[in-house]
Amino acid sequence: MSDSEDQTSSPVEKNESDNKSIPTTNCLGVGSENEEKHSAIVASHYNQIEDRGLVARKQSNIIFMRNFNNWIKSVVIEKYTTLVKQRTPLGSPFRVLDMCCGKGGDLNKWANANVTHLICTDIAQVSLEQCESRFNGMYPGDRDIPRRPKVEFFVADATLQQLRTKYRDPSTKLHLVSCQFAFHYSFESFKQADCMLKNAAECLEEGFYFIGTMPDANEIMKRQRMAMSDSFGNDIYNIKFLCDTDNPPLFGAKYNFQLDEVVDCPEFLVHFPTFEKLALKHGLRLVERKRFEDVFDELNTFKQGLLERMQALETYPPYQGRKGFEGQKKDPEQYAHVEEYGKKMSSEQHFRVGTLSRKEWEAATLYLFFAFQKMKTSYDSNGLPVYS
């Protein structure tokens, strides 16, 4: 993959307007030995991550980056839940699939959006159990029943299994599908990526949305070439390529990603033009793609209050003795950009700003956000879907 994604052709590219040129696959629930082995590695990794609680998380080296990423998710989820409500009559059902839900980090977001039917699925059994426990803790008593959404929890590999067959009602129509920090695992193979997009699209109502976040392959390759090494990063993240970096494949471009105490497992580059073409095959039209820093530049002024409430930026210089963050040591080099800003101000003027350390910003800016909309569906004389 080149730094400029337009320079690399897709294996499915014959005619950009002709989706019939793209091969067809089915989610049969059975993968190859290698696919199932990798899925087991990912599931095992996330099953072993402990839910350490809020106090322990505040001592993390990447607490502000994690809060920043959560803020990104919050503002884009709020944007698209608002768009859903604008397209539906007041009081209508609001059905969401949280695909690869993990431990339930977005449950409060769905509650705030007044979702009426929530489907949570993940490959990791332990993570899903923690998600269900967290959900039940949000609605502990009988008086919470009126605001409690219908909910479904089930373990599944969305890259190999058809999710719809596991719904209580396989005819369920969805208004929003969300896949946060997980879609890139499907790019191990064409079959898996195609299956995951089928799961995202096939129950989505026309006009509604599939949204998600994932690493930006272009940015990763750019940094690899700048480093002139198959391994690069800083104190909190590291990427080590396990494939040919001179000519990475469009599927199966494998690297190991390590992020402090949160992630340490194999992942795959997502060639975005291929992703976009596969999405079109399933009737999903790209409506938005933004890197995290662009989302921040666009929305931080309007969502400043949420930034502060979520502690998505670190106050610098820090307040002395701030409760919960005393154990974090500050490396002046990590805040040189803030000091430079301070020098531009009057010498008598005291300043404090919200920021991220340089190493946290480097890690946060590896990611992008995407949104697709389900197109109108009709059928040709052979019974095949035609999207417009």
Automatic annotation (TrEMBL):
<dbReference type="InterPro" id="IPR016899">
    <property type="entry name" value="mRNA_G-N7_MeTrfase_euk"/>
</dbReference>
<feature type="binding site">
    <location>
        <position position="73"/>
    </location>
    <ligand>
        <name>S-adenosyl-L-methionine</name>
    </ligand>
</feature>
<feature type="binding site">
    <location>
        <position position="180"/>
    </location>
    <ligand>
        <name>S-adenosyl-L-methionine</name>
    </ligand>
</feature>
<feature type="binding site">
    <location>
        <position position="157"/>
    </location>
    <ligand>
        <name>S-adenosyl-L-methionine</name>
    </ligand>
</feature>
<dbReference type="GO" id="GO:0005634">
    <property type="term" value="C:nucleus"/>
</dbReference>
<dbReference type="InterPro" id="IPR039753">
    <property type="entry name" value="RG7MT1"/>
</dbReference>
<feature type="binding site">
    <location>
        <position position="122"/>
    </location>
    <ligand>
        <name>S-adenosyl-L-methionine</name>
    </ligand>
</feature>
<comment type="similarity">
    <text>Belongs to the class I-like SAM-binding methyltransferase superfamily. mRNA cap 0 methyltransferase family.</text>
</comment>
<feature type="region of interest" description="Disordered">
    <location>
        <begin position="1"/>
        <end position="31"/>
    </location>
</feature>
<feature type="site" description="mRNA cap binding">
    <location>
        <position position="184"/>
    </location>
</feature>
<feature type="binding site">
    <location>
        <begin position="69"/>
        <end position="70"/>
    </location>
    <ligand>
        <name>mRNA</name>
    </ligand>
</feature>
<feature type="site" description="mRNA cap binding">
    <location>
        <position position="367"/>
    </location>
</feature>
<feature type="site" description="mRNA cap binding">
    <location>
        <position position="103"/>
    </location>
</feature>
<dbReference type="Pfam" id="PF03291">
    <property type="entry name" value="mRNA_G-N7_MeTrfase"/>
</dbReference>
<protein>
    <recommendedName>
        <fullName>mRNA cap guanine-N(7) methyltransferase</fullName>
        <ecNumber>2.1.1.56</ecNumber>
    </recommendedName>
</protein>
<feature type="domain" description="MRNA cap 0 methyltransferase">
    <location>
        <begin position="60"/>
        <end position="375"/>
    </location>
</feature>
<feature type="binding site">
    <location>
        <position position="185"/>
    </location>
    <ligand>
        <name>S-adenosyl-L-methionine</name>
    </ligand>
</feature>
<keyword id="KW-0808">Transferase</keyword>
<keyword id="KW-0506">mRNA capping</keyword>
<keyword id="KW-0507">mRNA processing</keyword>
<keyword id="KW-0489">Methyltransferase</keyword>
<dbReference type="GO" id="GO:0003723">
    <property type="term" value="F:RNA binding"/>
</dbReference>
<feature type="site" description="mRNA cap binding">
    <location>
        <position position="109"/>
    </location>
</feature>
<dbReference type="InterPro" id="IPR004971">
    <property type="entry name" value="mRNA_G-N7_MeTrfase_dom"/>
</dbReference>
<keyword id="KW-0949">S-adenosyl-L-methionine</keyword>
<dbReference type="GO" id="GO:0004482">
    <property type="term" value="F:mRNA 5'-cap (guanine-N7-)-methyltransferase activity"/>
</dbReference>
<keyword id="KW-0539">Nucleus</keyword>
<dbReference type="InterPro" id="IPR029063">
    <property type="entry name" value="SAM-dependent_MTases_sf"/>
</dbReference>
<keyword id="KW-0694">RNA-binding</keyword>
<feature type="site" description="mRNA cap binding">
    <location>
        <position position="134"/>
    </location>
</feature>
<feature type="site" description="mRNA cap binding">
    <location>
        <position position="267"/>
    </location>
</feature>
<feature type="binding site">
    <location>
        <position position="100"/>
    </location>
    <ligand>
        <name>S-adenosyl-L-methionine</name>
    </ligand>
</feature>
